Amino acid sequence: MSNYSALSTPEIEDRIAVLRDNIRQLTEQAAATSGAADEERNSNRIAQQTEELDALLQERDKRLKP
């Protein structure tokens, strides 16, 4: 897991938006492709993007707490 404390809050927000779009695109790709290798690759990529998104959301929420 990366250390996101060096990023500014706007940078975190931008990265969150990018990751959400990446996950949407990967999900669309997964629906359009077939084959075990493709499904496993897409599943791994979605899992990695989701893990990073979760970490960024936690960092953002931590910063927004009073």
Description:
This protein is mainly alpha-helical and 66 residues long. Helix content is 80%, strand content 0%. The protein has 2 helices and no strands. It has helices spanning 9-32, 36-64. Helix 1 (9-32) runs antiparallel to helix 2. The longest helix is centred in the C-terminal third of the chain and has 29 residues, at 36-64. The radius of gyration is 14 Å and the shape is elongated. The relative contact order is 0.19. The mean pLDDT is 90.
Please give the alpha-carbon distance between the first and last residues. Answer: 25 Å
Tally of alpha and pi helices: 2
The biggest sheet amounts to:
none
Q: Point out poorly predicted stretches.
A: none
Average predicted local confidence, pLDDT: 90
In terms of structural class, how would the helical and strand content be classed?
A: mainly alpha
Q: What is the strand content?
A: under 5%
Short description:
This protein has helices spanning 9-32, 36-64.
Keywords:
66 residues, elongated, 0% strand, mainly alpha
SSE topology sketch:
Elements: H1 9-32, H2 36-64
Helix pairs in contact: 1-2
